[in-house]
Task: inverse folding
């Protein structure tokens, strides 16, 4: 893709606008400037919210068929421009071209599911006559849109995580204001372009590019915003929750995901699955495997195979078909990961492979014997680092897996269905993947965590529930003709 600067515009209430102040977008692989986007002001955000009030009325008036047609039109455009979107994801973010193609395919599915779920947002009848004296009453409830949804998205899935906000919001009949990550705004703007081409009415959607310090609080605190859907870090999520006021909040705040490998597991499958789960997207994945607990009878064999497969991963040019892992989103993040690993090593951890940084690239890194108090053991690394630990029993693995302030997803590798079921009940997470790593998700399932991993659930159907409300209608019948 040519790196000629085009100077992108942002979508403000259906109008493409520019601003003198710019945010520069860099390719993290080589720190090359690839484009610029407008740096929106507080006044821009205030205007976006004012226009969204009108947009909410327009969105609510769209028929289900109109919503479905728009969403299906977007999916069609994504399919037709699949490689174009994939190259944009790879260029501005950390993903390799192969990973980026997978994200585009998932985004198409997310939008298609949104179109289908639009027809399924229904209510049901209510038996009011279940209480004495109400024999002459009957009724039902239906769901109606909440109004304006604010979406704040991260850099690691710059297309599909945006789609997971926009798709359900439009399907449910809402207006939406999207604030994408400043590191990766270009994919979100391309998706907005597809929505405008598919016939989404003006004022229904804004994709506003700006620095969080300039426009974030205006979006979060405004009383016209009825829901905030945020994906990002725990610290930022807590700050948003304190400022939001009386409105719905849905948050996916990351994790420190465990995988448990029992002695009866398929060794080769467990190794390949957890290597992929640990280092996909350079470990910048909320579902990424961070801790692996292996029963001691299998530990030595697992460790040898895991380290060998990790060493075989190829880092480098993101657009190469032969690259397995790209850089972190910037050198600052790579330095943060580097320090976490160095601190663990000073505390006695063992380095099995990796541990070196080159600019924004950080080698796939495997640690063992990591002290319980080390930051890499209890915090979210969000980088290509994984910890191996031997355990004496399944019970010990469950206890250690739960011993962090996160709980998004977990994986269990076993052929024992009873242990799998016990693990599914006892792991303090939002999802348990049996014979898969924690890094598995389909876009139709409820997705979210417990503890510091967030509030609420994403997944189109479940997001639509949060983006709508129930309204009860009750008829008191009379004998009059």
Result:
């Amino acid at each position: 893709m040519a790196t000629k600067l085009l100077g992108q515009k942002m979508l403000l209430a259906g109008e493409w606008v520019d601003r003198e102040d710019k945010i520069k977008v860099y390719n993290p692989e080589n720190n090359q400037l690839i484009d610029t986007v407008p740096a929106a002001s507080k006044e821009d955000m205030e205007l976006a919210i004012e226009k969204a009030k009108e947009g909410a009325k327009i969105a609510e008036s769209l028929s289900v068929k109109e919503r479905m047609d728009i969403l299906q039109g977007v999916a069609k455009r994504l399919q037709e421009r699949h490689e174009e979107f994939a190259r944009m994801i790879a260029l501005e973010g950390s993903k390799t071209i192969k990973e980026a193609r997978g994200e585009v395919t998932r985004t198409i599915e997310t939008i298609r599911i949104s179109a289908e779920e639009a027809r399924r947002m229904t209510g049901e009848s209510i038996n009011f006559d279940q209480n004495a004296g109400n024999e002459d009453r009957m009724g039902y409830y239906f769901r109606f849109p909440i109004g304006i949804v604010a979406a704040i998205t991260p850099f690691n899935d710059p297309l599909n995580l945006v789609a997971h906000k926009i798709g359900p919001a439009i399907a449910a009949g809402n207006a939406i204001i999207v604030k994408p990550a400043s590191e990766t705004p270009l994919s979100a703007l391309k998706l907005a372009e597809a929505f405008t081409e598919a016939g989404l009415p003006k004022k229904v959607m804004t994709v506003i590019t700006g620095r969080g310090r300039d426009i974030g609080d205006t979006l979060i605190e405004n009383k016209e915003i009825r829901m905030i859907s945020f994906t990002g870090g725990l610290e930022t999520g807590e700050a948003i929750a304190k400022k939001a006021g009386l409105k719905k909040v849905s948050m996916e705040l990351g994790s420190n995901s465990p995988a448990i490998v029992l002695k009866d597991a398929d060794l080769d499958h467990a190794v390949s699955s957890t290597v992929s789960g640990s280092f996909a997207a350079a470990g910048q994945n909320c579902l990424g495997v961070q801790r692996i607990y292996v029963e001691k009878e299998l530990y030595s064999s697992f460790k040898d195979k895991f380290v060998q497969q990790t060493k075989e991963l190829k880092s480098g040019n993101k657009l190469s078909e032969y690259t397995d892992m790209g850089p972190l989103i910037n050198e600052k993040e790579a330095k943060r990961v580097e320090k976490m690993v160095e601190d663990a090593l000073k505390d006695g951890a063992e380095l099995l492979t990796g541990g070196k940084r080159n600019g924004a690239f950080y080698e796939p890194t495997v640690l063992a014997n990591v002290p319980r108090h080390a930051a890499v053991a209890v915090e979210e690394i969000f980088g290509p680092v994984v910890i191996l630990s031997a355990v004496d029993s399944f019970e010990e693995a469950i206890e250690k897996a739960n011993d962090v302030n996160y709980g998004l997803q977990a994986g269990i590798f076993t052929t024992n269905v009873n242990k799998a079921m016990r693990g599914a009940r006892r792991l303090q997470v939002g999802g348990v993947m049996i014979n898969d790593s924690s890094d598995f998700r389909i876009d139709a399932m409820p997705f979210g965590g417990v503890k510091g991993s967030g509030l609420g659930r994403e997944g189109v159907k479940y997001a639509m529930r949060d983006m709508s409300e129930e309204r009860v209608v009750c008829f008191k019948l009379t004998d009059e003709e």
About this structure: The mean pLDDT is 96. Residues 14 and 196 are 7 Å apart (CA to CA). The chain has two domains: 10-253+454-471, 257-447.
